[in-house]
Amino acid sequence: MNRVLIVDDETEVLEALSSNLMRRGYSVNTAPNAEAGIAKTKTERFDVALVDIKLPGMDGIMLLEQIKKIDAEMEVVMITGHASVESVKLCMQKGAYDYIEKPLDTNRIAVVIEKALEKRQLTTTVALHEISKAIFSTIEMDELLKIIVDLAMKVLQADDCSIMLFDENNKLYIAFSHGLDEEIKKSTRLAIGEKIAGWVAETKQPIILINGLTNDPRFAGITGRENIKSAIVNPLLKNDKILGILAVSRKQIEENFNKADLYKATVFASLVSLALDNANLYKNIQKLRNELILVNKSLENKEKNALAMVAQLRAAHEELKANQYQLLQSAKLSALGRLVSDMAHEVNNPLMIISGNAQLSLMEEISSETVKNNLKVIFEESQHAKDILQRLLKFARPSKDQVKDVDINKSIESVAILLGHQFNLSNVQIIRSYADDLPHISIDECQMHEVFMNLLNNARDAMPGGGVITITTGIEGDYLKIDFCDTGCGMSEENMKKIFEPFFTTKEKGTGLGLSVSYGIVKVHNGELKLKSIPDKGTTATIYLPLKRS
Ligand code: ADP
Ligand code: MG
Fold first, then answer.
1. Residue to substitute in 389, 505, 519 for testing ligand 1 pocket (most ligand atoms within 8 angstroms of CB)
2. What gap in Å lies between CA 369 and CA 527, rounded to an integer?
3. Per the CATH hierarchy, to which homologous superfamily does domain 403-546 belong?
4. CB-based burial, 283-318: b 16+ in 10 Å, e otherwise
5. If you classify domain 3-131 with CATH, what class do you get?
6. What distance in angstroms lies between residue 499's CA and the mean position of ligand 1's atoms?
7. What is the tens place of the pLDDT at every residue in 132-182?
8. Whole-prediction pTM
9. Are 2 and 117 in contact (CB under 8 A)?
10. Cα 170 to averaged position of ligand 1 atoms, centre (Å)
């Protein structure tokens, strides 16, 4: 439930407004002056605050400033009796979302609150993107742990945070923490299953503990942590393997963690897991490099050994690079998803009006050639923009809604037939090399068609003078493998680095979204999409899809 705080010194306003908002489904809290408002903001979390500009003692503008210091994400709407332009302007400069004038119109208030809530949600999405940038800014383990702990405390408004990792005996130890006693830090060693962290490591489930830890019967026997009011303990998982534990807790802040915090913590933990995995790989490389230096120094006759290590070092380095790239992609996808879908919806309506009007005007008698041409450009460009929007929406919402068992050869063939005539006209020949007896796999066929279509169209675009596309299907390990190999212009190494970035395109009318959308769809199916290319020779796009349901 969304939470609203109202700060006003007029009792009638407070009462009328809060009962109206409660009827509309909000959870409402009130304060008669700025000081009480600040105290409430410190102990509880609100989504929106309605603040009267004119308050006895500290005024509404100063309260606004204080609220923004305590919780920058809270949206503040000012209530004003004598809307002096100057004070309203000042409020907006200081971060107020909007203002409403007295006498209060409850319908307008409801609309302003809804808009403020929308903005708050968008801010959270953007914040997530910022967080992922901060977490992936370093690869040094010590630096990373500090960044994670600082961020976790800020993002989740906690006053204690620790990260636990596994030691050589597979026991959890506190790798970094804020707010914990040095003694506890040093002496803590937990086996899997032991105490709260051990329980989370065993079950791989996050937990939220409220009203004191000992309140939960599973952990009733634990002593020494009685001062904790509420806590969230998250497993750090990479491919279902447990890497460690991230725990945040509140001691001073009265307000318990809630479901929204748990969700935030889980998303945060998934980013942390990816970054930790990266830092681990990097640590291994460092170790190998150090060993390599030792070997080199002391032994000439162990050249072979050293060479093997170099090979290992290279392999680890490659893995690190690949891993990091994928990380960025998946972090980007999750954080941008909502933002993109919101924006796409916002832009769609004005665009429809523009293209509709241009089309209507074109039907009329127009004598000026320039005007006519301009209208044509407007119409064509709005069609192009509509194209981008459609793709953006797909990018934002790859879903697993319509998963069914599919014969992949048949599925590809239906797309190949659909595009066949067009490709013939462009002198592009499709050669089929389908493996027999492939097991059916469960996919969202509609979405996978989007991927096939993108890859085939890209191949065609790469061969303006015609050429050959070879589609090959087969099995590799636990995966079904599909190759789309073209004899087109290929790509430079420089461009290869950017192809999965949304909006990267080298085409005049390209959207630059085909590959990033395809990447997202294949990822949702727990698969991989990889491209290899040789300039002037051609490109092979390969899709790997897991044979077994996961
Ligand atoms: P778009 O097709 O709209 O440009 P994509 O995301 O599908 O967007 O592709 C991005 C870019 O990647 C293309 O503009 C092109 O430069 C390059 N590309 C993709 N597939 C191929 C291919 N098969 N051969 C050569 N270049 C390709
Ligand atoms: Mg494309």
1. 505
2. 52
3. Histidine kinase-like ATPase, C-terminal domain (3.30.565.10)
4. eebeebeeebeeeeeeeeeeeeebeebeeebeebee
5. alpha beta
6. 7
7. 777 777 777 888 888 888 888 888 888 889 999 999 999 999 999 987 778
8. 0.43
9. yes
10. 46
